Amino acid sequence: MQYKDIEQEFINRYKYLYINAKYILAPFIYKETREEKDRFIRRISEFNSRLALSTDDGLSVFIRLIDKKVLSDVESFLLSDIPYNESKLYLELEEKKKDSDFLLECKNNLELLSRENNNIIPNLTKLLKEVKSFIELQSGMLFIRNKKILALEQYQLLDKYKNEDSISYISNNNTWCMVEEKKKRKKKRYNEYQALETSNFINYVSSDAARYDYNGCILTEDQKQDIYLEFHDELPWNLEIECNGSDSKIIKAGNTSPCGNSFYIKEDEIFVNPYDSEHRYYHLCPCCGYMVNIPKEVLTPGVISRIEKRCLDEDYSFERMVKVSHYYSFRDRRIFKQDKIKKLINK
């Protein structure tokens, strides 16, 4: 694999596993039997009878130990030089997804886990964590495992991205090395699954030269945001609009007038004008209180649905926001204090 192709391959692999991680984990979802539960309680009672009495008698649902062959295939998918759509994991999983029995098993297992143990989410975050533990326990040279961990952490860093004005960072290389040295004599190595040793992909992604200094990632924050928004129906946190009143038909409150400043649009501060289908969505300018119309074109269907539902739950939402906008016009004349405006908004 050429270095120039690695960034796009990294993105392709992440997207594929983001969608399909549940199909990899679902077959390992398990509900313990009554015999297993009773045996577990008996073992506890041998050491602490009081703890045994306080143990929940219900049957647990969890993700059992994932087959090492599967983890080895996922590792190869993520870190090798083989294109993602030619990898063993991809080819086998796509074939399985054609089987209605496999899909039904996944559906039933996922519903079971969601219903009885919502503390475990069978998603990419869980899968990456399992693969990282698998690599840490492999035999072989420490620096090879170290490089693989650094490359894998790039996926974890992308997976941690949230649509907000903050940056997550990967762990420090030296810190991981020191922890690993302390652990290596206490853990059994998976000698049989030495798996991948090195690749151009690993060498590039784990190198300092491939990462941006400001976020420690091989992708920019804008790239991470674009990927995130493909899977989440949200507004970009940095979506700006200018406070202006270019359209004379747009409603305004009292003596308010646009200030011309730009501000970030926040979904939970958008409200609905139920009397105008053309100019239906508004947002108070945080600088002057002017009611700025938000074009419907910049809102996704999911965002519109959540706004409409929220405003139905708030009695007279539009009328209240008109009053708040009107009070803003008196703020500079100190007739109304800022805390009173905040109380009106949060009423």
List the helices and strands and how they pair.
Layout: H1 3-25, E1 29-31, H2 34-47, H3 49-54, E2 61-63, H4 68-79, H5 88-96, H6 100-116, H7 124-136, H8 142-159, H9 173-183, H10 200-205, H11 221-231, E3 240-242, E4 262-264, E5 270-272, E6 281-284, E7 291-293, H12 301-313, H13 317-331, H14 338-345
Antiparallel strand pairs: 1-2, 3-4, 5-6, 6-7
Helix pairs in contact: 4-7, 7-8, 13-14
Written overview of the protein:
Mean pLDDT is 83; it is low at 172-186 and 333-337. The chain has a 3-stranded antiparallel beta sheet. Strands 1-2 form a two-stranded antiparallel ribbon. The chain has a two-stranded antiparallel sheet with strand order 3-4. It has 347 residues and is mainly alpha-helical. It has helices at residues 3-25, 34-47, 49-54, 68-79, 88-96, 100-116, 124-136, 142-159, 173-183, 200-205, 221-231, 301-313, 317-331, 338-345, and strands at 29-31, 61-63, 240-242, 262-264, 270-272, 281-284, 291-293. The radius of gyration is 27 Å and the shape is globular. The chain folds into 2 domains: 3-231, no CATH class; 240-345, no CATH class. The N and C termini lie far apart (58 Å).
Quick gist of this model?
The chain is mainly alpha-helical.
Give the termini separation. Answer: 58 Å
Mean pLDDT: 83
Residue share in β-strands? 5-15%
Question: How many E-type strands?
Answer: 7
Cα shape = globular
- The strand order across the widest sheet is 5-6-7
**Can you tell me the residue ranges where pLDDT is under 50 for at least 5 consecutive residues?**
172-186, 333-337
What is the SS-derived class? mainly alpha
Task: Specify the helix fraction band.
Answer: 40-55%
Total number of domains: 2
Radius of gyration: 27 Å
